[in-house]
Amino acid sequence: MRDRVETQLLKEGQRLDYSPTRRSPRIRLQVPVFLRATDLSGAEFVELTKTLNISATGACIASAHVLRPDQLVHLTIPAPSPSPSSVIPSETPPISARVLRQDAAGDMRLFGLEFLRPLE
Length: 120
What we know:
mainly beta; Thrombin, subunit H; six-stranded antiparallel β-barrel
């Protein structure tokens, strides 16, 4: 099954990273997200940023803010303008995550996040 998924992703130009120590494979996929959290001074902020990779259990995101290890953050995927159809939701529910690690990348920081509940 994993080989079939990996082959399909490679055909679509995306790369699948799989490690036996990971709970789920990562897909190098840039998805715009709103990051809602508090900075080191305790001020709340909302930042439009993006994922660098994502899996069912976590993501790596870029941010101009500094976050603390184990800090809880919330991600929301922007949705297009509300549709008159009741089939398409007007917004996505927030995804809660915990900061596991961070790395400096120039004036940005890269954060490894673990979702509190795996994506389905």
